[in-house]
Each structure stands twice: as C-alpha cells, then as structure tokens.
Amino acid sequence: MSQLPSCSQCQSEFVYEDRDMYVCPECGHEWPQSGDASADDQAQIKDANGNPLQDGDTVTVIKDLKVKGSSSVVKVGTKVKNIRLVDGDHDIDCKIDGIGAMKLKSEFVKKA
Question: How far apart are CA 94 and CA 52, in angstroms?
Fold first, then answer.
C-alpha cells in the first residue's frame, strides 16, 4: 500500500484519494495528486492588498468605477456581498444594490 501525503494546510494524516485529487477530511483542503500545492496558491485570486478571495466573501470597492453603457458610478466604499470568483479579465461576478449584476476586477476591491 502506498503512503499518502499529509495535508499541507493542517498537517493531518487522515488524507484520502478522490479520483485524481487528495482530500483532507479535517480541514476540507483538496489538491491534485500529480502536482504540488504551490500551483494551487499561484492561481488564487487576490484583492488590492494581497489577501486571498473566496466565493461568498464580502468586499469593498476602493475606487470610483464607471459603469460601461450607463451614467451610473459605483462609489468608493460600496460593500459587495456574496461574490463569485470566475476566470477571465474581470474575475469577480456580483450583484450591487441599485445597479444590478456586474463583473469586477479584483485589483479594485479589498476584503471587508
């Protein structure tokens, strides 16, 4: 029987295999079997201050943002709840009260 690695997040030894991923049941961390955990960290989306963002986070806008095709502006300090991270140039999908669904760049927000 092969020796499974311990979790890189919590150092738990109770790691199990799920298809092509390793999974830690204690902290919920998952990482690919063929690669290392550092590749997962590089792909992480970060805010303007370098804090990692996750789905469901609340962020605050740090700069006035003009809404394309409209005369509206998203003001500095606007709180955006329950963000969803996506791939692409604009990496945050969200709904802003009074404006509606928008895509934001992570460089213009900070974690609240």
Answer: 17
Tokens standing for 41?
């960290």
Q: Model confidence over 1-38: pLDDT tens digits?
A: 468 888 888 988 899 988 888 899 998 888 888 755 44
Burial of 109 (0-12, 13-18, 19+ CB in 10 A): buried
DSSP letter string over 7-45? PTTT--S--EEETTEEE-TTT--EEESSS-HHHHHHT--
Cα(19)–Cα(21) distance, integer angstroms: 6
Contacts 24+ apart (CB under 8 A), 101-105: 102/67, 102/74, 104/61, 104/65, 104/80
